[in-house]
Design goal:
single chain; about 450 residues; alpha/beta; Rossmann fold; 2 domains; six-stranded parallel β-sheet; 15 helices; 13 strands; about 15% strand
């Protein structure tokens, strides 16, 4: 077949530009209209291709890659309702601040509104759930259009990473033929195209946002005089984009060391959910109150606890007991440390301190004066005794070999080798992990879906 091979060059340039901007994985759900993109991905020496026919499954597969790697994976599907199956993963990525790029192949504009098959309006298909939308347009040989392909790819990666990590949507239209063709001779756009492929995308340097010094000073002042403070750790939020380096793998040990430094310096017991990455691996020198959800469901216990400082790290804890504690003590100073989002569903926080949580913890810990009070106050000791008694009751419930949800949760978590990654389902499974698995000095990374 003779004719122009511009459609394939267009797709190759787009994929090459994404790769040079940091994308490493492409998750393909094959279909006719996405043929140029699928072939370009398969030919690339810079990209790893994963073929998953079902778009909904593909979306969550790519989401898992982003959660583990800190990089945006690329989703590619055909036209029509195929892209709509990405919607649950798109929403999860948006709510969890995870980078993701969805590319929906589309039919040309002349088929819109004409009852053509597999043709819907894909413009801004995901509405406000994506950080940005771009229409790549149809293949165009002009030098300006070819340069724009590179720019759109670089912008997609940048907006997936910063200022708030999340999903991005790019719509790409193609006319037939969709398969490669053999042109009758050199094409006039080839020299400009080759130069752009060789050059790659421009480097977009993402800024690193540091916490406000006045907020650090306020935290130091509050921690230095708190006598009944709690360090409460909800689901971990990745520090990528605006408050961390793009594509850098999460350093679990460094994160745990930083939080542990604050807990030691301020003598704060740690109330950590399993998905915070701080229940498993903090070390024996840190006092963890892992049964806090069960304890805080008791109104009398909440009343006696009467904290004078609450410091939250990450996303809002899922614990109902902790939500009840906040409601019972609305005047208690509460500081939320997180890289992204307004993480205050009760609308009662004293301050939200934005930045890398590990950096904030390290900075505050370094500035705290040496403690003048005893290592263990009566309040502190009573809290640790209550936690020990709660776990004694849980141990009795799980004694023997009777199969139950709690038995499975503890068996799985305790059976994971040190440094493992445990992927846990949302709803009941993650709650079982919190309810039945005590804190442990053995490192274990827990990945989960937020569930929106």
């Amino acid at each position: 077949m003779s004719g122009s091979n511009l459609h394939m060059a267009w797709a190759r340039l787009f994929l090459r530009s994404l790769a040079s901007s940091g994308v490493r994985d492409v998750v393909l759900s094959p279909g006719s209209r996405s043929t140029p993109l699928a072939l370009a991905a398969a030919e690339s020496q810079e990209l790893r291709c994963h073929v998953i026919v079902d778009e909904r499954s593909a979306g969550f597969f790519a989401l898992g890659q982003a959660r583990a790697s800190g990089r945006p994976s690329l989703l590619v599907c055909t036209s029509g309702t195929a892209g709509a199956h990405y919607f649950p993963a798109i929403i999860e990525a948006s709510q969890s601040f995870l980078p993701l790029i969805a590319v929906t192949a589309d039919r040309p504009w002349e088929l819109q509104g004409s009852a053509a098959p597999q043709t819907i309006d894909q413009i801004k298909l995901f509405g406000g759930h994506v950080r940005s939308f771009s229409d790549l347009g149809q293949p165009d040989p002009s030098p300006a259009a070819l340069r724009a392909v590179v720019r759109v790819a670089a912008q997609a990666v940048l907006r997936a990473m910063s200022p708030e990590p999340g999903p991005v949507h790019v719509n790409a239209r193609f006319r037939k033929p969709l398969e490669p063709v053999v042109p009758s001779g050199p094409e006039p756009w080839e020299a400009a195209w080759s130069a752009l492929v060789e050059k790659g995308a421009p480097a977009a340097q993402i800024p690193w946002i540091t916490p406000d010094p006045s907020a650090i000073a306020q935290l130091v002042e509050r921690c230095s005089r708190a006598e009944r403070g709690l360090l409460v750790c909800g689901p971990h939020l990745p520090s990528i984009g605006a408050s961390g380096p793009a594509g850098k793998s999460f350093d679990l040990k460094q994160y745990q060391r930083s939080v542990a430094a604050l807990a030691r310096a301020a003598r704060l017991p740690v109330l950590a959910e399993a998905t915070s990455q701080l229940r498993f691996g903090l070390g024996p020198a840190i006092t963890s109150i892992a049964a806090f959800d069960a304890l805080l469901r008791n109104p009398a216990f909440r009343s006696r606890l009467a904290p004078d400082l609450l410091i939250e790290i990450g996303a809002p804890p899922t614990s109902q007991g902790y939500a009840d504690l906040i409601a019972d003590h609305p005047d208690c100073p509460r500081f939320v440390l997180a890289p992204h989002g307004w993480n205050d569903p009760s609308s009662s926080a004293s301050a939200l301190v934005f930045g890398d949580a590990a950096e904030i913890c390290e900075t505050v810990a370094a500035r705290l004066p040496a403690p003048s009070r005893p290592d263990r106050s009566p309040w502190f000791s009573a809290l640790t005794r209550a936690d020990a008694r709660a776990w004694d009751l849980v141990d009795r419930e799980l004694a023997g070999d009777r199969l139950s949800e709690g038995f499975v949760a503890r068996a799985v978590s305790s059976g994971c080798p040190e440094g493992s990654i445990l992927a846990i389902g949302n709803s009941s499974p993650v709650r079982d992990l919190d309810m039945y698995c005590p804190a442990s000095p053995r490192p274990l990374r827990v990945l989960h879906q937020r569930g929106a």
